[in-house]
Amino acid sequence: MRSVIVVGGGISGLAAAWQLRGQADVTVLESHTKVGGKLRTGTIAGITVDEGAESLMALRPEAVELAAAVGLGDALCDPASSPTTIWTRGGLRPLPAGHVMGVPTDPAALVGSGLLSPAGIDRVAREETLPATPLTEDCSVSRYLAGRFGQEAVDRLIEPLLGGVYAGRAERLSLRAAMPRIAALAEQGGPLLPALRRMKAAGAPRSAAVAVQGVVGGTGRFPQAVAEACGARILTGTAARSLQRLPGDRWRVLATTADGPLTMEADAVVLALPAFAAAELLRPHSPAAEAELSGIPHASTAVITMAFSRSQAHVLPQGNGFLVPPVDGHTLKAASFLSNKWRWLHDAAPATFVVRASIGRIGEDELLDRPDRHLVRTAIAELHRAVGAMGEPLATRVTRWDRGLPQYGVGHRERVTRIREAAAELPGLALCGAAYEGVGVAACVATGRAAARQVLAGVPA
User: Fold this and answer.
1) Beta-carbon contacts of residue 422 (< 8 Å; ≥ 6 apart)
2) pTM
3) CATH superfamily to which 2-40+61-76+217-296+408-458 belongs
4) Which CATH superfamily is domain 103-201 in?
């Protein structure tokens, strides 16, 4: 039987191991003490909460299908129905339904929302009267959409959603990589507003605000379920330090463990690592791949989870949470009212109200240099400004994700093509993870399974 070493036990690597089950002898190496990467749970006030991603996008099926396949089908659950809400201009303001990553489809629905000024709404409405030639090369989200809808719409409608998904900024993110549905319409030419309305009328997928699912007990259960179902040998606390190519296109992995060095050999290797970590391992074998991977910037973020007593809180917020436009000068980029959003969490702790706040966009590393207690005080202060004086939390928890989100800059798709072309010159090696075709859980699952198929095709049984 073929042998494969998967380096990285996040959901991408575990999805690769799942795809390889029964077709190869698989070993997964994970440097941390638990598998899961950015999918993990913790506890606060005795309540289980997600510390990383709290949901699986259902717009694309890979994650929810895998969750069902590993026994979590009955645990998949929908969030409470609630519109996307923006904290701006002194209030929580719902984003009108029908938007696509913040891009409005009905300018009239913005009237009275408080999201845009009258001049800003008029500028959005005039988009369909503007000439539009087909987009022929990648550009930033801001460059294209500000030209179509005005800068105010980008700052107050689109930027908050980009911050929530990518921890990125509109002037840096690639339109083609970060907003592919919009880019596809732009490449056809013509105004976007009528094209978006036609897309809706044709039965296009629902907006991301409602097309997600959670897991009862926390999305952090997902990677553990995959690990148990895939049949692979999983070695935690095992960090790969270098790769060596062997005769016959085989590979040797040199790793470190708490018990000392470990050396393993296999027919193929799947690198399911952040771009910067994959770059280190590939430096001796492909300077081109190493250079391109090292060129992908990353944003660091922090999640502040707070548990409030329902009986003692002065105010309990409504809805599922809010996003924050950086133009308003707040530190928070988003907040989720977990006890409202997920019925399972409310049922597990009916006397407690759990809120999760997020801090950190690309270029804001100085914020994350502050001690945990400062982040907590900032989160509480801004939460009170947004929803009212809830009072002091019973407990708090800070989770830091250093270089946790890769940034898809202008030309990212072309960069990924160059990375994959360089890696293709190394037989028996495949890459997967959030750095390539999407940062969401579903995209990571897809890249993991694709990497597994690639090494199976390249290594004879």
Assistant:
1) 286, 288, 289, 292
2) 0.95
3) FAD/NAD(P)-binding domain (3.50.50.60)
4) protoporphyrinogen ix oxidase, domain 3 (1.10.3110.10)
